[in-house]
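Example record used in the benchmark description.
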Amino acid sequence: MIGFMMGYAHVMGAGLTTPLKALGAFVYGVEALVVGLDAMLAGALIQLGFSILLGILFALFVSRGTSTLAALCAGIIAAIAIWIAMDLFVLPYENPTMAARVALMPWAYFIAHLLYGVGLAMTPAFIRTFSKGRHDQERRAHGRARAAQIQSI
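Model output (structure tokens):
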């Protein structure tokens, strides 16, 4: 998300670091636009923290067996819900500096959230990849137990 927003801001002439500074305004207020590196670091950490937290919450609602299409739909729906919540409720009250910057590029902000939704959609694939070894071990153990059960009959 932040990479897309930084690229878009740069191309549009707003400055490459403007999205990070706008996020940093959660901490520094409007001064984030001139503070510099501290505001950019705060903005990057805020974005990363929220993304991780929301990604974990999303992962709690999908399983390793979720189809790619279902995960994509769920990811996009979650991303749109996050976009609505941020745009209508969080930013106007908690970070008016960022809300003003988002108002200058609303479609880019929406597309960035859709990209985040596509990233969320990869969660079941990650779960399958990182739990594959454990799942295979459980399946083999179950197979051995079943074979022993059959032999005892």
